[in-house]
Every structure is written in C-alpha cells, then in structure tokens.
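REVIEWER CHECKLIST
Item 1: Sequence provided? yes
Item 2: Single chain? yes
Item 3: Sequence as submitted:
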Amino acid sequence: MLRIRGLHIINRLNIPSTQHVRGISKVSQIEPEKPEIKTSIPGPRTQALLKELSALQQADSVQLFADYDKSTGNYFVDADGNVFLDAFTQISSVPIGYNHPELLKCFDDKHNLRSLINRPALGVFPSLDWPKKLNNVLMAVAPKGLNGVSTMMCGSCSNENAYKTVFMWYRKRERGGKIDFTQEEMASCMANQPPGSPNLSILSFQGGFHGRTFAALTTTRSKPIHKLDCPAFDWPQAPFPRYKYPLEQNQRENKKEDDKCLEQVADAIEQYKKKGNPVAGLIVEPIQSEGGDHEASPEFFQRLQKLCKENGVAYIIDEVQTGCGPTGKMWCYEHFDLPSPPDVLTFSKKMLTGGFYFNVENKPSQPYRVFNTWMGDPGKLILLEKVLEVIKNEKLISLVNESGKVLKKGLHELEHEFPNLINSVRGRGTFLSFNSPTTKCRDQINSDLKKNGVLGGVCGENTIRLRPALIFQKKHAEIYIDILRKTLKEM
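Item 4: Structure as written out by the authors:
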C-alpha cells in the first residue's frame, strides 16, 4: 500500500473507489460551469494565427490555438474565447488540469526556480539533491520490483533508450557476463557491421505506437503517415487482439483471439532466431492508444510474459499514455496481476518527465552508453512531485474510478440509443473509447463535438478516445454525455 522513500510518503495510489473523494473544490471554484462557444470553430483569430504559423512550418495538424492564461481545470479556452470541456488534454498529457493552484506555486520557491533556470546536463553535473529527488518522486511510485530509473525527455526517447538498454543486457548475457569489448567489436560497430553492431530485434504489435525516432518508429505500426519515407530495421511484428464487444457476450471468441495472437508471437520469435536476428525484447502497450484503443485481457498479458521468460526476451511495457492514473491504477499493467514485474516500464505524458524503470543490476556497465545532454529536466520532477501530492491528497485515483463508472455507463446507454452511430464502448477508469461504423462518421462526430464545446481525440480507423485529466468529476462526465447525446441527435 504505502512505500516510504527518503522523507516523503507517497501512496501507491490504488485507492478503492468507495472512499470519499475530497479536495476537489479548489479546482471547481475557478472552473467555468460549462462550455461556451462564441464563434465558428475554428474562429477568425484562430484562422489568422494558423495562416501565420503555416508560413513558418507544416501546421496542418493544428486544431486550435489556446489561451493558457484563461484555461483552467478541465476547461480549455481558445484564441477566440471559446470555452471547451477538454476530454483529450494535450493527447493525454495534462495530469491535474490547466493552471492547478498547487502547480502555479511550485516556482515561488527560490530553490525550485533556480532548479528550473539552471538546467543541468544530468548525466554529468546533476544537482546535489538529484538522488533525493529521484528517490522521493519517481521511485516512490515505481512499479513494484523495479529498483532503477533513468529519466529522459519524452516518450520516444524513453522507448529508444529502453531498447538500447535491452540490447546491452542481451549482449552482456551472450558474453557470459563479460563487460570488455574486443577490438573487432569496436572497429565493426563504427562501420555499422556485426559483431559490434549485432543483428538483434525488438518485437512489437500491429497497431502499436511507440514513438517517432528511428528505432521507436520501427516498432510503431499504427498509421502509414507516421513511417512513410523513413528507413526501418528488419524487426518482427505480431497481431494484437481485436476483441468483439460487449466482452461478456463474446468470451469464447475473444479467448480464441488471444490464442491466435500469442501463437504468432511465439512463431515470430522462433522465425527471427532462425534467420539470425533474434528478438532481444518485446514491447507492448497495456491499451493500444494511437492504433485504436485496443485492449487485451489480463490472461493475454500473463501468457505474453511467460513467452518472454521462456525465450529470454525482455518484456517492455509502454505506459507512456496509460501511466499516472487514468485507468484507475497508477500503472495500467497493475490490472493484469502479472506474477512478476515487467523487465522495463517506460513512461512520459502525465508523468511530465519521460523515462523508464528497470532493475539496476541490468544497467550498462560503462558510462555514456545510455546518455544525452539533458537526460530529463529537474523542473519537470518538481512539478511531478506536486502532481503526486495532489493525486494523493485529493484522492484522484478514487475520483478516476468513480467518474469512469459514470462516463462508461453513459456511453453504454448512448450506444444502445444510437447503435447506428457508436458501438464497442471500452476501456478502464476514464481511459475510455468507442467506435463509429466508418471513419467519416467518426470524424463527423468528433468535429461536431468540438462545435458543441467538447474537445476529444480520434485514433485508429474509426475510434473516438477520451483522455480527460485526473480531476474530471462526475459532473464533467455528465456534461460530456449530454453534449455527445446532443451531437448524435443532430446527425
């Protein structure tokens, strides 16, 4: 339940949803009561700003320009003064809403301010309180059984450096634990040739998204536009389960889907071993996010871990989107009752800093092997420390579970009211989604939601995903459902 590190006590955050939820009034008092749309969407000022930005860069992905001075709590205010209930929160990366009072005070402290402006090269000149910060903040919520952490800047570089670490473990094991390199290895790696640059691979899943840097991009398999024109490694893939809904009525079919996917994982590991490009690691999202919010059963993840152990493959769980509470637990994989922790867990987004957890006995033996100039940002850890305090003090994991029940119940009611427009409601906590019959229908719903005052996100071919902040209350869930119902009626 509680883990004590240094001077701070941080709750493991798996607070039962039956506990009383307190401490939310601070945010509620400064929030708008509801969305308010004053102009067309996008409005005239937004259109002018988009034209200005497009003259400088590729800006076609920009939806709205924000007024972050006026955005607060669960509400996003755009450049034209339109007020939206934000159920997407910067692609799932805002943990406790906009301009939370506790975060606004973080840098009133002069020491914190100096930590922000004197940004160090953490791998060479960390501040004297850096070990304490890592212990008190990141290790306080570490996955049970993992005792090491490496900070990074973002989700992509977290996965990228996790892969490097896995390859280094694998090769050290192949050398029988030796840490010295031969002259041949050192010379050949400079020519991008084995044995110094070995033929090793990371297995990922169809529909997975793990980032946009080159190794991460090789394992990303969600949309062609992410990968077109970029060289990639010869690394294996396997299908991720595609379930039929509702789950309780399709247990037999979904069990067969698990079996089929796991069989293909085993086949891919064996195939790549035979072709001389063995699988050193396997990466999987607890819920495939960008690829369509596909979920899998606890049994699937348990059997997947067993396959990894049997084949000497590192089991990497990518919690970049699912980490820090939105599924109703601190880490989504905790829903799966794994017999042991993953070998590596990567994080970013709601955690504010990027990085990955692992066991320190598997850290590289030499310096500069997993390294970059900044290796994260102390300023983000200062904010994360306050975020974790707010999560504990305001019982936000309980709130996620309570709000999630209201939200999911409302979505199930709507899929019965409008079966021709939405279906396959799914997810955990407030990390929820639903499908539409076609991409065109999905995009129309999402666009009309925005015109009616709700920001949502899309993923996969026909999915709308919900990614609210952890402070999303029952009343916000009810507003979302009411506006979605209005939107569906108007179609």
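Item 5: Key structural point noted by reviewer: The longest strand covers residues 279-284.
Item 6: Recommendation: ____
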